[in-house]
Amino acid sequence: MKIILRQDYNTLGKIGDVVNVKDGYSRNFLIPKRIAILATSKNMKLLEEERKLSEHHQNKDKRKAEAMAEELGKTSITAAVSVGEEDRVFGSVTAQTIADLLKEKGYDIDRRKIQLEEPIKALGIYTITIKLLGDVEAKVRIWVVKE
Hints:
By secondary structure, this protein is α+β, with helices and mostly antiparallel strands. The protein contains 3 helices and 7 strands, in the order ββαβαβαβββ. 35% of the residues lie in helices and 27% in strands. The strands form 2 sheets. A 4-stranded mixed β-sheet has the order 4-7-6-5.
């Protein structure tokens, strides 16, 4: 039976691929889970329209992310931390701390998008990478200073 994939599926292919599978597999698993639809001319036209709409939304989201990355590139934030003797930082500056500081500036960034190899444990100026969307990244400067 020929089907059209509506979403990426590891063993079969990518969205829009027309593949030939066993009847039972398509009727009992792929079609009920909305992973695939029957390969008819009507469904091919519908899928093409969905693909165009999806591409439009992806392009719109990418432009929005690029604009936000440009704004974030101009932004610098300051994290005031308490220090002990010899300027040793108590605790550390984590991705959650950076997300909270950005929220105060008006940017709602999820902490999981902030790329920190390890928490910041020293005073200084750091450049942090924020992965906004796919390959769109923003660089933010963070100043870690004494409280």
